[in-house]
Amino acid sequence: MARSKLKAAVALLAVAALCVLVHLRYQREIGPARARIATGSTVVDTPCGAIEYAVDGDGPAVLVVHGAGGGHDQGMDISKAFVPRGFRVIAMSRFGYLRTPLPADASAAAQADAHACLLDALDIPRAAVIGVSAGAPSSMQLALRHPERTAALVLLVPAAYVPRPGSAPPMRTPAGTDFLFETALKSDFVFWAGIRLARPTMIRAILATPPEVVAGASADEQASVAQTLDHILPVSPRRLGLLNDAAVTSSLPRYELERIAVPTLAISAADDLYGTFDGARYSAAHIPRARFIGYPNGGHLLVGHQQEVAAEIAALLQ
């Protein structure tokens, strides 16, 4: 009896020690993540409400409209491909992300008006726009509602309308995404644990990219994928934005694509697990001055094509 009690006590101590070690590692890694989103951005009051944004570079203005799970920091990650090419990148946090509050009307149209309000606040008459994933609906709405403010449009793995058989929704949901949305995307700790213990699952379900594509990529692109996943942390100040994006992208209407009058580039990959390939191709087919670039693989992050994609976008912007 005494020996069994001793074994139980040792086991409890081991579990307690493991919990302490996990907690210490979590605190060591979540601290810099919280510090990262607390610096490098500004909040400006506009007629559309408070908007958080960051700016980098000099040259023609490029407005980066981030995707789900993003914020100004995701936009700044994207800007690294364009600032050295001579562009001034403006990256906002959309409604419900980080320090931009979620208003009562957080529709794609209202977001587009907020993009125009931000350009007004920064005294930028026109900008090229890069709409990434769930940032594509408001980017298209900006080109439709404020055509005089839009110089060019890039739809990068866009959440976009496409007619599907049986009235199926335009966007698809990878296996496990709904479960993670109700668990990991509600908690900084659970999300952190997920990317440490089940990274391939998180790459598939959150980043909508086949893990085997990432495994076969270069070291630089693997590092880029890891950074994208890590930079969703902390996820808690993005939660309201994620919920709103889920609502907006679940019922995407068909916009008047034929009225978009600026040079447009739509890019996706056939194995994007969110199903953006069809929407990108459909949008490009109906926007008068649009070109579609489709890759057979690469997933939602266009793994294996990132440098080529950056070059194609820069060519359009120039």
UniProtKB/TrEMBL annotation:
Keywords: Hydrolase. Residues 60-302 form the AB hydrolase-1 domain. Pfam families: Abhydrolase_1. InterPro entries: AB_hydrolase (IPR050471), AB_hydrolase_1 (IPR000073), AB_hydrolase_fold (IPR029058). It comes from Lysobacter koreensis. The keyword Phosphoprotein does not apply. It comes from the Bacteria. This is Alpha/beta fold hydrolase. PANTHER family: AB HYDROLASE-1 DOMAIN-CONTAINING PROTEIN, HYDROLASE, ALPHA/BETA FOLD FAMILY PROTEIN. The keyword Hydrolase applies. GO terms for molecular function: hydrolase activity.
